[in-house]
Write a structure and sequence with these properties.
The complex is a heterodimer of chains A (181) and B (997).
Chain A: E1 5-9, E2 12-18, H1 26-34, E3 45-48, E4 51-57, E5 60-66, H2 67-81, E6 87-90, E7 95-101, H3 105-110, E8 127-132, E9 135-143, E10 148-154, H4 158-168
Antiparallel strand pairs in A: 1-7, 2-5, 2-6, 3-4, 4-5, 7-10, 8-9, 9-10
Helix pairs in contact in A: 1-2
Chain B: E1 21-30, E2 33-39, H1 43-49, E3 56-57, E4 64-65, E5 78-81, E6 88-92, E7 102-105, H2 120-123, H3 132-136, H4 141-155, E8 170-182, H5 186-197, E9 202-205, E10 230-233, E11 236-242, E12 246-252, E13 260-272, E14 276-278, E15 291-293, H6 294-304, E16 311-316, H7 322-331, E17 335-340, H8 348-355, E18 360-362, E19 364-371, E20 378-385, E21 397-400, E22 403-407, E23 410-412, H9 415-419, E24 424-427, E25 432-435, E26 442-444, H10 454-472, E27 513-515, E28 520-521, H11 522-530, H12 536-543, H13 556-567, H14 571-574, H15 588-592, H16 609-614, E29 618-622, E30 625-630, H17 638-651, E31 654-657, E32 662-667, H18 671-678, E33 691-697, E34 703-713, E35 716-721, H19 726-740, E36 747-750, E37 755-761, H20 765-773, E38 792-797, E39 800-805, E40 814-820, H21 824-835, E41 841-842, H22 845-854, H23 889-892, H24 895-898, E42 903-910, E43 922-924, E44 935-945, E45 950-958, E46 967-971, E47 977-983
Parallel strand pairs in B: 1-7, 8-9, 8-13, 9-10, 13-26, 15-22, 16-17, 16-22, 17-18, 31-41
Antiparallel strand pairs in B: 1-2, 3-4, 5-6, 5-7, 11-12, 12-13, 14-23, 19-20, 20-21, 24-25, 27-28, 29-30, 31-37, 32-35, 32-36, 33-34, 34-35, 37-40, 38-39, 39-40, 42-45, 42-47, 43-44, 44-45, 46-47
Helix pairs in contact in B: 5-10, 6-7, 7-8, 11-13, 17-22, 20-21
The chains are: A alpha+beta (181), B alpha+beta (997).
Chain lengths: 181, 997
């Protein structure tokens, strides 16, 4: 079994978008900028090219895109949603993203999490927001094979989370539940 | 009984020692003595194999105690394992797996196990009846604290705490499953297999290292494998069951990884297959080392090839214990006699024993145990004819033996069932409580359900497994699933016995123990009844029966039987005491998990944290942040560093890391209206590009936060909050929006973490910005004319993407520059470089506080404490008189918040300018030599001001503003009095000219 690999992703930008999907024209206005639909299914995400939109709640999304373009996209998005009851904020620097790869990546996160990530419905694309080591965090299941998770935490606790993950991922504490391979 | 080198470990023989590997001897020590055992031994079996009967001293009387049980039920053999910081106290020797080099020590003895001073308590035990402590240590009152409690604490207690920090790793994990099966005996395995076969996600937790439970000791198979597709955790104890099937399991891990792992499990269905616990019988001196449970005696023999002795007595009221006699006979492990209280024992096992020629004394009890002088080894038992109901024996005879294997029947292990309110019912067929109803989705199967017949147990378990899986998966149940029919047992009936009468007064050195761990005897329970403790829960607390780590595993039903006989009430009418978690003790390390040492708390760090560290900063906690407090350099102390930093700001320029400041973006058609309601002053009138200081109250009219809000666009604001209040205020805003004013079109997003933000403050602040602007792309004009006080600009400065706010918390010309967090450190360094020729100095939070105190600015949490209004701190001018409403407005109208006599914010100057009043010092109306003095207020902030070259303080003083010039007295510790004069809280630049340049 290969090692668990944990790396911080620093090349991605994030835009926090709030709005009412039921407001006529809102979804189209967003799509016109992102060329991507907003996911409306709870705990899901949609991707196209190098842009991924994560569902945060019924009226909130996190748009993940290359850092270099986030400022411009935010401005275009702000302009596009200006007529609506909506708010787009560039939060590209507010969070640290840890990419955890390898069989048992889920279990590494579960050692600090308030939820079980081995459910059969926790497939690629799933987004879960939960408490991790007493912190507000979010996981995005990037892919099932190879098992890859992105853990989103606030930047100020990045060092702490990195240390927690390294401890949880120690080879002598490796766990792979339910015979996953 | 003098033999010391007895061959307790029997030679290799068929069917014996199934768990040990004789090819792998292991060395260990017990109380410093070097002993040996085999791989597969428990500490208990290895001690018995070495002839160690005495393993501990009892809690109260310090009586010698030996090993009684085989697993989690063990109440005597609590030992400490490991050395120094790795020491773990209060482990059951029956559950400690032997490993090479293991160091174990006995507990609760002094100076040594075999000679213990405390056993004098046993001699004087007639003076230590139930409730002794309650009766004795009541008076005089002062004795409790100074004499009784220290003495009791020294005498009591079991293990010792480790000598230092535990270096082991621990971890926790959160999992869900459809069906959790607790117990890996035949019933648990059958249930798990059935549930998994139905497609459910099944976990099974087994306390022991191997599966099978005690099936091997009841002539069932001893080969068990984990069912396919079931997550099987061995060495894992189900500690506790909470609401909605949330359970804690503690796994004892092997190898180099974590020492223990706590599994936090949410199960849709729980199947309790925890088996049953054999119960003792109360007879005189039934706690002597060498008296053990019949199942345990059989277990040590069969599993570890350890003979409990050479000459045994099996004392029973049921057929199962005959298995012990039969195994002893079959394996040639010495002589054995069965003492059976039943007049006419019958059943297949009894017949088999008769055929094997085992002497059976029917209608007989063991009434007394004779032991060596120190009570450490058994020499014989006394036996007498018995009929139910008799209370005193007249004729006894003597039966030499060196061990007694006891069986008083079986109690279903209902602890987990009861942790969260499971109901029990008393079953007269088994003379024990068994599970009845449960509000959670919980099942009990097999012996845990009182079903002792193996075939019936397996059928019941499979049925429960299928049913549980079907319900968990929300499937309709197949038609071939029917509840199993219970077959009549082919065994003779059990006859209840709780108490074997004795020939002598039974509490004078001839105690009948009910609860071994807490030294509770039959006499104690009876005394409690005579003294009126008619509630079973009161009896429990008065006598300590069923308490502590054991939680009545062996003593519960036995004690109820005693109470039944003492009161003449049937057992079901007495009720049952509560079994509480944890099922077995757990270590603090398991509770803490990974969150200890550097992982104890997630400390928040700003983007400039590493620079602060590299530049010698000392830190202070602000919320979960660590902020740079000051930057001592060149051997100066903190006070010198703070003074240097302050003077740099006043004379040249300083740089502060203000990234922790709370920031919230607020946008929407109604954003202005919303802020008007949130703050005491108006924001709808604020012009785009401008900033305004705001005061936030709660509904009670008290200040909860303050800060500067900037208007980014018509419908867009950026609010700054205090560092500690950022999360709280964001939640406060959301709550008002979502629950009170859903009609307002406003959205908020906290953006604190997005920005690094620094204050450049001092007369040369603008020059620093201009110098930075010259280093790269810049489009922000920082000249006074185009960038006035209390306005903000966005753009590029020296190539950095910035928002600049011209606001001041120091009273100096000041700019707060925000940039995306990842560029924070670079901007900080660029500012330090640009400002170097001007003498720019990094300053910390203490300098920040002194600077603002010199200006009389409040800090929420220093000058306010949740009971302070704007008027109290002299900020009434910020409370709008024209706005229709804002949070707290109504409360401010209350008469007592406007009344005379409220404490008001003032400045203080001490008589001696070098004297710095302590924070929180109280001014008194009148100084008295003794007794309480009436306070008229207290110091809220107090500093040595290097700017003014004297001490300054702020205080909340009764009617303070009308007392200007008055001198107050502050009595300090040690009787010292400090006098200070009331002045305006604005000590420096009262006209505010310095920031307006």
């Amino acid at each position: 079994m290969s090692e668990i690999v944990i790396e911080e992703s620093t090349d991605r930008g994030m835009i926090d978008l709030k709005g009412d999907p039921a407001e006529p024209g809102f979804l189209d206005a967003v799509k016109a900028v992102l060329e991507l639909d907003l996911p409306l299914v709870p705990r899901s995400s949609l991707s196209s090219g190098d842009t991924t939109v994560l569902w945060l709640s019924t009226d909130q999304w996190l748009i993940v895109l290359p850092y270099a373009g986030s400022e411009q996209v935010t401005e275009r998005l702000q302009a596009a949603v200006a007529p609506f009851h909506a708010l787009a904020v560039d939060l590209s620097d507010a969070r640290s993203i840890f990419r955890i790869r390898g069989i048992g990546a889920r279990e590494v996160v579960m050692k600090g999490a308030s939820v079980d990530l081995t459910h059969t419905d926790c497939i690629a694309g799933t987004v879960r927001r939960f408490n991790f080591a007493d912190l507000a965090t979010m996981v995005h299941v990037v892919s099932d094979r190879p098992e890859t998770l992105d853990l989103y935490v606030f930047r100020s606790v990045g060092n702490y989370v990195r240390q927690f993950l390294d401890t949880a991922a120690r080879p002598d504490a490796r766990l792979v539940l339910w015979g996953r391979q | 009984m003098t033999r010391t080198a007895a061959p307790y470990r029997l030679p290799h023989a068929a069917g014996l020692g199934r768990l040990i590997d004789r090819d792998r001897p292991l060395g260990f020590t017990f109380d410093g003595q070097r002993l040996s055992g085999y791989a597969g031994d428990t500490l208990a079996s290895a001690l018995l194999a070495n002839g160690r009967r005495l393993v501990g001293r009892s809690f109260k009387y310090h009586r010698p105690r030996g090993i009684v049980g085989l697993g989690t039920e063990e109440m005597n053999a609590l030992v400490g394992v490991g050395l120094g910081a790795d020491h773990e106290p209060n482990l059951q020797a029956t559950r400690v797996e032997l490993r090479d080099g293991l160091v174990a020590v006995s507990q609760n003895r002094w100076p040594s196990l075999s000679f213990d001073i405390g056993q004098i308590n046993d001699v004087f035990s007639r003076f230590i009846p139930g409730g002794f402590y309650y009766k004795t240590f009541k008076w005089p009152k002062s004795f409790w604290h100074h004499l009784y409690e220290p003495l009791i604490r020294r005498a009591a207690g079991l293990g010792r705490a480790p000598s230092g920090r535990d270096s082991s790793a621990y971890e926790q994990i959160r999992v869900d499953c459809d069906v959790l099966v607790v117990g890996g005996g035949p019933s648990g395995l059958a249930a798990a297999q059935a549930a998994a076969a139905s497609g459910a996600r099944v976990m099974l937790a087994e306390d022991q290292p191997s599966l099978g439970g005690v099936a091997d000791l009841y002539d069932a198979s001893d080969e068990f494998r984990a069912p396919p597709d079931v997550m099987v955790l061995t060495r894992t104890t189900a500690l506790a069951h909470f609401h909605h099937n949330y359970l804690l399991l503690a796994e004892r891990c092997l190898g180099e990884g974590p020492r223990q792992r706590l599994w936090k499990v949410r199960a849709k269905e729980v199947i309790v297959a925890t088996g049953a616990i054999e119960r003792p019988i109360a007879f005189a001196n039934n706690d002597r080392p060498g008296v053990m449970m019949a199942e345990a005696a059989r277990g040590y023999l069969a599993r570890f090839a350890v003979a409990p002795g050479e000459r045994g007595v099996v004392f029973t009221n049921n057929d199962e214990a005959y298995r012990t006699a039969l195994l002893v006979r079959r394996t040639g492990a010495g002589e054995v006699t069965v003492v059976d209280i039943r007049k006419h024992p019958e059943g297949a096992l009894v017949e088999e024993a008769r055929r094997a020629g085992i002497p059976i004394l029917a209608g007989t009890v063991v009434s007394q145990v004779e032991s060596t002088a120190a009570g450490q080894a058994i020499e014989a038992v006394r036996i007498a004819a018995f009929r139910p109901g008799m209370s005193r024996l007249l004729r006894e005879s003597r039966l030499p033996c060196d061990y007694v294997a006891v069986s008083g029947g079986y109690n279903p292990a209902v602890h987990l069932w009861c942790h969260n309110g499971g109901k029990l019912r008393y079953d007269m067929a088994i003379h024990a409580y068994r599970p009845d109803r449960h509000r959670d989705r919980m099942w009990a199967v097999g012996a845990a359900n009182g079903t002792f017949d193996l075939e019936a147990a397996l059928a019941e378990s499979r049925f429960a497994g299928e049913q549980a899986a079907a319900r968990a998966l929300a499937r309709s149940m197949a038609s071939d699933m029917v509840a199993p029919q219970l077959k009549p047992r082919r065994q003779g009936a059990i006859e209840p016995i709780w108490f074997a009468p004795a020939s002598r007064h039974y509490n004078d050195g001839h105690k009948h123990f009910v609860d071994f761990q807490n030294d509770v005897t039959v006499a104690d329970l009876e005394l409690a009844q005579r003294e009126g403790y008619s509630s079973v829960e009161h009896t429990k607390r008065y006598t300590t029966w069923g308490m502590a780590s054991d939680q009545g595993k062996t003593s519960s039903v036995l004690g109820l039987g005693i109470l039944s006989e003492a009161t003449g009430r049937p057992i079901p009418e007495i009720g049952v005491t509560t079994f509480r978690p944890p099922f077995t003790p757990l270590t603090f390390g398991t509770v803490a998990g990974a969150q200890k040492g550097p992982l104890f708390l997630a400390v928040r760090q700003t983007p400039v944290h590493d620079w602060h560290v590299a530049n010698g900063a000392t830190f202070e906690p602000v919320g979960h942040w660590r902020r740079a407090y000051c930057y001592p350099s060149g051997g100066e102390d903190k006070a010198a560093a703070i003074a240097r930093e302050i003077l740099s700001v006043r004379r040249a320029v300083g740089l502060l890391d203000a990234s922790t400041l709370g920031k919230i973006e607020i946008r929407g058609r109604d954003a202005g209206t919303f802020l008007d309601r949130i703050y005491t002053n108006s924001f709808s009138t604020l012009k785009v590009g401008r900033c305004r200081y705001g005061l936030m109250l709660n509904e009670l009219g008290f200040i909860i936060d303050d800060g500067v809000t900037a208007r980014l666009a018509d419908d867009h604001f950026l609010m700054h909050t205090t560092s500690g209040g950022a999360d709280r205020i964001a939640a406060w805003l959301e709550e008002w929006l979502q629950t009170e004013w859903p009609d307002l079109q406003v959205l908020i997003t906290p953006v604190t973490e997005q920005w690094a933000q620094f204050a450049v403050a001092g007369p040369k602040a603008r020059t620093v910005l201009e110098a930075l602007a010259a280093t790269g792309e810049s489009d922000v004009d920082v000249t006074a004319g185009s960038f006035p006080f209390m306005s903000w600009r966005a753009g590029r400065l020296g190539g950095f993407r910035v928002r600049i706010f011209r606001i001041s918390f120091s009273g100096e010309l000041s700019f707060e520059i925000a940039t995306p967090a990842r560029d924070g450190l670079r901007l900080w360094e660029a500012l330090m470089t640009a400002g170097a020729p001007l003498g720019i100095t990094a300053y910390g939070t203490e300098a920040l506080h002194v600077l603002r105190a010199e200006k009389g600015y409040i800090v929420v949490g220093d000058e306010t404490d949740g009971t302070v209004t704007p008027r109290d701190v002299g900020l009434d001018g910020l409370v709008s008189k024209t706005k229709r409403d804002f949070i707290g407005r109504r409360s401010l109208e209350q008469s007592f918040l406007r009344a005379e006599g409220r404490k008001e914010l003032v400045g203080l100057l001490t008589e001696d300018p070098r004297e710095v009043l302590p924070d929180g010092a109280h001014a008194v109306r009148e100084v008295k030599a003794n007794g309480p003095m009436a306070t008229i207020g207290h110091v809220t902030s107090s500093y040595m001001s290097p700017t003014l070259e004297r001490s300054i303080a702020m205080a909340l003083i009764e009617n303070g503003r009308s007392r200007m010039g008055e001198t107050l007295t502050f009595p300090l510790e040690g009787g010292r009095l400090v006098k200070a004069t009331i002045v305006s809280p604005v000590f420096y630049d009262p006209q505010g000219e310095r920031q307006n340049v």
